[in-house]
Amino acid sequence: MAEREAWHAMSPGAVSSALATDPVRGLSSEEAASRLAAAGRNELRPSRRTPGWMRFLGQFNDFMIWVLGVAVVISAFVGELIDAVAILAIVLLNGVLGFIQESRAERAMEALRELAAPTASVVRDGRQQEIAAALLVPGDVVVLTAGDSVPADGRLLESAALRVDESSLTGESVPSAKHTEELTDERLALGDRQDMVYAGTAVAVGRGRYLVTETGGETEVGRIAEMLEAQQPEATPLQRELKTVGKRIALLVLGVAAVVFAVGVRQAAASGVPLTQGLAIALLVAISLAVAAIPEGLPAIVTVALSLGVRRMAERSAIVRKLHAVETLGSTTFICSDKTGTLTRNEMRLRRMAVGTDLVEVLPDWAERPSDRVPDAADRSLLLAIAASCNDAEPVEGGYLGDPTETALLAAADHLEAPERVRPRRVHEVPFDSERKRMTTVHDLDGERVAYMKGAPDIVLGLCTHVRLHGETVAMTEELELLLHEQDEMLASQGFRTLAAATRPLPVDEPIPGDDALECGMTYVGLAALVDPPRAEVPDAIATCKRAGIRVAMITGDQAPTARFIGTEIGLLEPGERVVTGTEIERMSDADLKAAVEDVRVYARVDPAHKLRIVDALKAHGEVVAMTGDGVNDAPALKRADIGVAMGLVGTDVSREASDMVLADDDFSTIVHAVHEGRAVFDNLRKVILFLLSCNVSEVLIVFVTTFFSSTPVLLPLQLLWINLVTDGLPALALGVDPPASDIMARRPRSAEEGILVRRRQLQVLWQGALLAAAGLLVYVWAEVVMPGHSAERARTMLFTAIVLAQLLHAFDFRSERRSVWSVSSLRNRWLVAALVGSMSLQAIVVYVPPLRAVFSTTPLTAADWGAVVVAALLPIAVIDLVKVWRAR
C-alpha cells in the first residue's frame, strides 16, 4: 500500500492548505463535484467475485473426489446401482456444504460496506447541509455530534469534549478523547492519533468539525478491506492429508487391480475357459476389488464426525462456521488473543482506592483489603460520594448507562456505600472536556453546599491547596504533593486508569462562583484506580494451554502498562518479560519480528497491519495459529490465521464473517474447550482412517494372494461390496464419536506437517491388514483342507463371515493405543457395541435367509463352523493386544 500523509503531525492550517480547502466555508459545490469525479465515491470498492457456478464446480476439483467419481462409474458398470447412487450423493453433499461455507465467508466484504454512514453533515458553499456520505470528497468539512457515525477519515479542526468510540478499529476499551493540537511523532499508532477521526467509528460524547483527508478505499477501513480481500484460504492439515490418502489409495488400487486382472486372465486361459468369459470374470473381480479398496464412506464419515464436533462445540458456546476448522483447532500450537472482552470482562471496575496516602484494594466480590493502614472511614465515604455524584452515568434496570469509567465509579459507590448517601442533588456543573481534563459539580447536601471535582490526577492536584489525610484536613506541601504524584504514577504503571477526587465547601447564601474561581482552593481526597478486570476462568485456561503445549499471546490496542498488568494477572507474563508495542513492531524488519515473535507474550498498541505481520511471523515458524478478535481491524488477521475466532457478543459483523469460529460468550476459556474438542475429533478421525484402511488392505490381500492359487474367486464381487457396507459404515461412524482420552490436554499438539499416515501408521495399516487377511485365509484353508466334506461354497461363507467379524472386532482395537481391548473401557462406546451387534445381525441374515443366500451365494453355517469363524476372528485382536502390552512396557 502506498505511503500516506501523516496528517496527525500537521497543523489544521497546514492540512487546509494541502487540501486546498477553506476550513470555514468548505468546498464549493463545483469543486466537490470535480473531486468526486477524480477520487470516486466514498464507498469501499466491490470485491472481485467468482461466479456461483464456478465456485460450485470448484468444490469437486479434488483428487479424492475424482477417485470417488471413478467408483461411481465402476459401481454402475458392475450393476451395483445402490452403491453408485450412495457414492454420488456423498460427493454432491460435500460439494454443496463447501459451496455454502464459501458463500458465507464472502459476506465479510459486504459487512464492511455496511459500516459506511448513510449521511453526513457537511459545510459547502459556506453553509451546513446534509448529503449522502458516499458523496464526500477529500477537503470536505464535516460536522460531528454525539451519536454520529464518522463517515470518512479526517483531521480535526474543532473539538468540544469530543470522545470517539474507536473500539472496532483500534481495540481501545474506552472512548478516545480528541483534540486539535498537532502531534509530533509521524509514526504514532492509530489509537494515539488524538487529532484524527476515522470512518467506521462513532462519536460517544461531545461535538467537533474535521477536514476529510481520505475517502472510500483510502480510509483505514478501506485499507483493512484490501488486506482482507488479499487473504487466500489455506487447506487445513486434514484436507491436505485426505488428498494424500486419496492419491495413495488410488495408486495402490490401480496397481493391485491391474495385477489381479492380468493373473485372472492368465489363469482363465490356462484352465481352458473361453477368452471372452475369462476376460469378463477377471475384469469383474478387478473392478470389485477396486471398489472394495476405495473407502467411499470416508468423506461422509469425516463430515459426520466434524458435524458432531461442531454440535458439541455449539453446546459450549463455540459456533464453528467451517467444518474443517474443528480439525485445525486440534492442531493449534499458538493462540493470539485479543484482550478486551476475551481475556477481560469488557467492563471497567474499581480495583484500588487511595484515600489520602492510604491504599485499599477492592476485591472482585466488592470486599475491601487495606494494603497498608486502614483509611479513615469518613474520607473513604467522601471519596466514593465524589465518584458517584460528580458523574453523569445513570442506574438502569440490570446495570448502568453512560461512559464506562463513570458507570464503574457509580457501581463501586452503590456496592460499597448506601446509594441514597452518595448522590446528592446537583445544582451546578462545569462539564468535562479533553482540554480541561476535569469535571466539577455543585451539590446541596443536608443544608450545606459543596463542590466535587474529579479528573486527571496531575490537573486536580494542581488545583488543591489542602488534602484529607488520616481524617484531618491539612495544608498541601511540596513533599506531600510529590508523594501523591508518585502514588498516581505507581498505580498508572501497574495498568490502572486513575482519577483524582477533590472537594471544597461553598457558602449556601452566596452565588456560585464562576468556573475559574470555583475550581480553585480544592481539598484533595484521593484516587480511584480502575481497570478492565480479567475473567475469573482465564488463568485456569491459560494454565491448561501451557500443559497442552499451546503458547498464548495477548494482542491489544491498549497502552503497555495496562497490557502488562492484565498479562501478569492471568499468568501469561512472567516478571521481567517484555511487552512489545506497535511502535516497536513498526521498527522491526520481518526477520527481526520472526526472531522475536515466539518469545513475546504481550503486544500493546498494535495496528491491523501489525497483527498480520505477527500471524505471518508465527506461521513462518510452522505454528498453527488461532487469532481472536472483535473489531473491523481484526478481520484481515482473522482470515490470515489458521483459525479465525470472532466474538459473538461484542464483535462486528465484519470480524464474524471473516472468522472460522464465533464465541457466543466471548470467553477465552471457550477457545480452550474448542481445542479440546478439536483434538478429540482428530483422534477419532485418525482411528476411522486407520480402521478403514487396515480393513481394506485385508480385503485386497485376500483377493490378491488367492488369485495366484485359485482359478475361481474366494470372495465374490458382491461379497466384497457387502463387507465394505457392513464394516465401513456403522463401526466407522461409531469410532468417529468415540469419547476423548482423559489425557488429551496433557500432551503436546501434533505437528501440522505430521500427517495421519506417517511411516509408523503406514506400517500399522499394513501389518494389521495382513493379520486380518491371515485370519480369514486360515479359516478358509481349515474349511478346505481340515474339515472333510465341506463344499467350496461353505468355505467361502466361512471366510466371508470371518472377515466381517474380524473387522468388526478390530474396531475395538482403536479405542485405545495402550489399554487392552478386553478392559471395561472398551464397552464405554455404546455406539460401537451397537454397531457390532447390528452389523453381525445383518451378516447372519445374508447367511441364513434363503432369498439373500441365493443372492450372496452363501450357505448356512453349523455350530462347529461358527466356532472356527470366532476363533479366527479373535486371533488378530489377541495379537494386537500383545503388541500394545509390549509397547506399553
Descriptive overview:
The chain is α+β, with helices and mostly antiparallel strands and 889 residues long. The protein has 33 helices and 27 strands. The strands form 4 sheets. Strands 10, 11, 12, 15, 16, 17, 18, 19, 20 and 21 form a 10-stranded mixed β-sheet that branches. Strands 8-27-26-25-9-22-24-23 form an 8-stranded mixed β-sheet, sandwiched between helices. Strands 1, 2, 3, 4, 5, 6 and 7 form a 7-stranded antiparallel β-sheet that branches. β10 and β11 (358-362) form a beta hairpin. The protein is elongated and about 125 Å long.
Topology:
Blueprint (H helix, E strand, L loop, with lengths): L11 H7 L10 H11 L12 H7 L4 H15 L3 H25 L1 H7 L5 E6 L2 E6 L8 E5 L7 E13 L1 H4 L5 E2 L18 E2 L4 E13 L5 H11 L6 H34 L4 H19 L4 H18 L2 E3 L3 H7 L3 E5 L10 E7 L2 E5 L5 E3 L6 H13 L4 E3 L2 E3 L2 H13 L2 H4 L2 E6 L7 E8 L2 E8 L1 H6 L1 E6 L2 E4 L2 H16 L3 E10 L8 H4 L3 E10 L6 H10 L3 E5 L4 H10 L10 E2 H6 L2 H8 L4 E3 L3 H13 L4 E5 L5 H6 L2 E5 L5 H6 L2 E3 L4 H40 L9 H12 L1 H7 L22 H28 L5 H22 L16 H19 L1 H7 L6 H26 L1
Parallel strand pairs: 9-22, 9-25, 18-21, 22-24, 23-24, 25-26, 26-27
Antiparallel strand pairs: 1-2, 1-3, 3-7, 4-5, 4-6, 4-7, 8-27, 10-11, 10-21, 11-12, 13-14, 15-16, 16-17, 17-20, 18-19, 20-21
Helix pairs in contact: 3-5, 4-5, 4-9, 9-10, 9-26, 10-27, 11-26, 12-26, 13-14, 22-23, 26-27, 26-28, 26-29, 26-30, 27-30, 28-31, 29-30, 29-33, 30-31, 30-33, 31-32
